[in-house]
Amino acid sequence: MKRVLSIQDISCVGKCSLTVALPIISAAGIETAILPTAVLSTHTVFNGFTFRDLTDDIPGIAEHWLEEKIKFDGISTGYLGSFRQIELVEKIFDDFSHPGMLRFVDPAMGDNGKLYPGFDEAFARKMGELCGKADIIVPNFTEAAFMLGEEYMADKDYSADDVKALLKRLCGLGSPIAAITGVSLEKGKYGVMAYDSTKDEYCEYYSEHLPYSFHGTGDVFSSACFAALMYGKPLAEALKVAVEFTIEAIRQTVAQENPIWYGVDFELAIPKLLELLK
Ligand code: PXL
């Protein structure tokens, strides 16, 4: 059985970060160890959330795992709260590194042209540094623009060549593979494009563009993409699994009588995930 590590916060209510990654990756039949970086009452889009920083616990936890000779087949990271947390994750990448270990970074820090509360341009550049130490990165257009220090452009303004050039600039941060989410080159279609610089190959996957925007879909996408890769799917198939699973989660959410606003009902899409992984 494969064992992976997911490093990000616990937002107790909010359906994002670890409360999404743990069930999704586990459902794929992969042991999912967690390293919580902070405990929040909710994610930061709610007003008045509490925040307990766990940064000081990270070195001791990692040290204990090293003593126990615990190995991970892959490590994925999402929302991280500070420069120091990014530096500690870089150290974990180094300390647990072995041939074949997949380092998957979702630089979760913004959407729709804006960074989440508490982040600034310097933080985004630091996240770009972490992306340079990954094997695959999965930013959206907002995160890509901030990490590269470029102006944000809405997804509908990109041509295929623009996205391809952007992917090459993202690989320039140092990760051999970059995927960009939220790509819509054609009206009604929505998905992801990726570039594997080791093969000089692009791949992409698009599905129906649903007329909704939900918080937490980025974390659902990246958890499913990481799970599919660790399951053994090649990149192009992993992108398909992740896009179709995310869309099913949105469909399930809007089918509810009173849809929640703060996340998606990915739980109801888990059977679809298992079908897609077959
Ligand atoms: O990746 C989404 C996310 C994760 N964790 C926290 C957040 C958010 C998005 O706002 O606030 C704490």
What Rg is obtained from the alpha carbons, in whole angstroms? 17 Å
Helix content: 25-40%
The molecules bound to the chains, other than polymers, are: 3-hydroxy-5-(hydroxymethyl)-2-methylisonicotinaldehyde
Quick one: biggest sheet? 9 strands, mixed
Mean pLDDT: 97
Shape call: globular
Low-confidence stretches: none
What is the H/E string? EHEEHEHEEEHEHHEEEHHH
How would you characterize the overall build of this protein?
With 278 residues, this protein is α/β, with parallel strands linked by helices. Helices cover 38% and strands 23% of the residues. It has nine helices and eleven strands. The protein has helices spanning 18-27, 58-67, 83-95, 121-131, 141-148, 160-171, 217-231, 235-254, 270-277, and strands spanning 3-13, 31-42, 51-53, 74-77, 102-105, 110-111, 114-115, 136-137, 177-183, 189-196, 201-208. The chain has a nine-stranded mixed β-sheet, sandwiched between helices. α1 runs parallel beside α7 (217-231) and α4 (121-131) crosses α5 (141-148). The longest helix has 20 residues, at 235-254. The radius of gyration is 17 Å and the shape is globular. The structure holds 3-hydroxy-5-(hydroxymethyl)-2-methylisonicotinaldehyde. Residues 9, 11, 16-17, 40, 43-45, 78-79, 108, 116, 218-219 line the site of 3-hydroxy-5-(hydroxymethyl)-2-methylisonicotinaldehyde.
